[in-house]
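for the record, two folds in this file. i put them one after another cuz i was lazy. first one right below, seq on top, structure tokens after. the second one comes after a little note so u can tell where it starts
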Amino acid sequence: MTVSVMKTIDEHIQKDQEEFLKALSEHNEGKVRHLTEELQWLLDHKKEFPDDPHDPSPLELFCEQNPDEPECLVYDD
């Protein structure tokens, strides 16, 4: 699997929407579920940070949705 780097969140949303439609037409239910969740997380991020055009990493998106997960906790020393 090749990971492509997008410059903006809008590019990422557009790419995921295109892949979502392709997965729907191919009846690829697993990919449809994955892209549905990822698109929702991207749209939530864009709504929360409307002036920030950067493409968030998967970890950023995950932690926004799951802030209490161990990998998302930040400790001050």
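(here's the note) second protein begins now
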Amino acid sequence: MQNSMKVAKWELKRNLKNKTFVIGLFITPAIFILFFFLGSLFSDSDDDTDNAENMTVYVNEDIGFFEEIESINTEQDFGWDLQTTDTPQSEITEVDEPYTAYLFINEQSLQENRIATYTSEKADPLFPGQLQTLSVPLQVMKAEAAGLSQQEINQLMEPISFVEGTIQGEGEPPSNIEESSLFDLENPLETLIPGIFAGIIMLSITFTGMAIFQSASQEKKDKIAEIILSSLTPSELMQGKILGYFMLGLIQVAVFIAILLPFAIWQTDIPILENLFVPRTIFFVVIALLSYLMFASIFVGVGATMSDVSSAGNLQGLVMMLPFLQFVIIGPVISNPDGVVAAVGTYIPFTAPLTLLIRLTLLDSWPWIEIIISVAVIMLSIYIFMKLAGKIFKVGILLYGKNATPKEIWKWIRM
């Protein structure tokens, strides 16, 4: 293990001294930020001003709802400048003053469930969504006017949920509803943010691990491998490469987070840090790290079979595409994270990591049996691929002149 650590440190120092790697390390997050600002420039030039401008809302109502609107405006921090008005609806044809709206609420509009609203052409784009928060209080007021009790109103307003369960006897509560008391949370951000964070880690270190291809091939091309193997074993060299590029990947992730996280916090009102430091983040990150170990073991083994990256054969090229195989089923998994495609993708080694992350991010209740099986599949795949990569690397790293054929690789595995 000591020799492997030496190889890892050597790979780390060699890449950190590479100007191309260092420049790319900072250029990539900078490009993300640049694209964000370019998108803002090409969007409506008044968007930023619109978002910052408060709406003036004139309310004409005769049912005693104005105080409720004031309360909602204060609680939700909409920033509305609320004012009452006696201007009849018939006199309002269009609103010329920017950032202005008129609401007309009366018994008839409440019965028809249609609140007349007049908004200026230049207005806060969030205003229509903010108006929807008035819907529930108006429905409650309508129910009270109909003579319903508070208990009846609560039952009427309670959302209906659909859960899996068997037919129960009368008066018996459902007993087989799948729940996860530790991780089922009302806040969706507490699943989304850790999932995105782990996904960034997984993709960053996996793509960095693909550089093992080039590393092993370059050492063969320059005939450095012979010198290195004179002082350590092929297994130690392979382990050192995997560990070294793993540390490079973590450095890349650290730089991404150090640059993009403050930018995201600055540009959004989402409580990112609050929802990032939660228990599930640790589990998500573990899945991401297992993903790297699985793909890195494949890369380092197959990379040793190539005499030159530019002349990679069909087999080597196919292996390089394995990390992208996960994106083939990403659409069906997102649209139906509990469907057949998602379930099957969870058990296939090459698609399991990303599929599992997406499912755990989107599902309200975690299917623990499927999770345990999926993690076991990934860990077993790591063990098998490590063993196979060790056999391939042992022979392939000293093979010069041509790329190994599938027949030759199979022969090395059986040795």
